[in-house]
Amino acid sequence: MNPINEVKLEFVSKSSNEAFARVVAAAFVSQIDPNIEELADVKTAVSEAVTNAIIHGYENKTGLVKMICKLYEDAVEISVIDEGKGIEDIEKARQPMFTSRPDMERSGMGFTVMENFMDRVEVVSEVGGVLP
Amino acid sequence: MNIRLTNRGNTLVAVLNGELDHHTAEYIRQKLDAEMLKSTTKNMVLDFSKVTFMDSSGIGVIMGRYKNIQKLNGKMSLAGVNEQIKRIFEMSGLFKVMPAYDSIDEAINKM
Ligand SMILES: Nc1ncnc2c1ncn2[C@@H]1O[C@H](COP(=O)(O)OP(=O)(O)OP(=O)(O)O)[C@@H](O)[C@H]1O
Ligand SMILES: [Mg+2]
User: Fold this and answer.
1) Cβ separation of B56 and A40 shorter than 8 Å?
2) One short Pfam family name for this protein (chain A) (predicted)?
3) Which residues in chain A are closer than 8 Å to B84, comparing Cβ atoms?
């Protein structure tokens, strides 16, 4: 099925772009008249994914994060993509409270938040990205 | 995001204002830790009534401060948490370790 509308955004992995990305996602989703709660859900989920790309994928080094927003007849799909280090064990990573960075005061709740706020969350990863 | 700090007895009251994410968390963390170091405070109330957005980075900030306060045998509580943020706190089990109240006054009275 082809999307009715599509937006692609690419930005450097700076933490100041987290707010930018979630506002863009919210603006895209706004075309299907979501309620305030749905908008907040999308913003939060996007913020989680983008933050993960920046702190885990690129480990705070400079890389490019891509966000693709697609609108279908009855659904919105948002992809957040990094080419950083990758996730070795996706099942483990998705578990509530699992974090590889307790030293950075992460709580391991990002994927759990995404799963609770969106209808479906898909994680695809390959280990070993563009950065050393 | 900005933060307003006041001391009420031995309780630090921090009113957070704006969006609490990974980008702003570091600043909030520094402000809170610096204040806890320089004063004789051992309890903390975090007021969320002016927080317009929060993701899991907020959980990290709160739990990090909670661990420090535990070492001082102090108490920590939350005030003015909206529905969206409450859902994230519930998911992460935060209310098992600290209570949330409607207002700062109530949080201080129950401290
Ligand atoms: N884009 C990514 N690249 C590499 N590893 C990732 C990526 N996203 C997540 N991970 C891994 O999955 C783990 C869990 O992610 P999750 O977002 O649930 O928790 P967290 O980021 O560690 O903590 P929190 O989101 O609560 O601050 C991370 O600790 C990290 O090891
Ligand atoms: Mg995360």
Assistant:
1) no
2) HATPase_c_2
3) 37, 40-41, 44
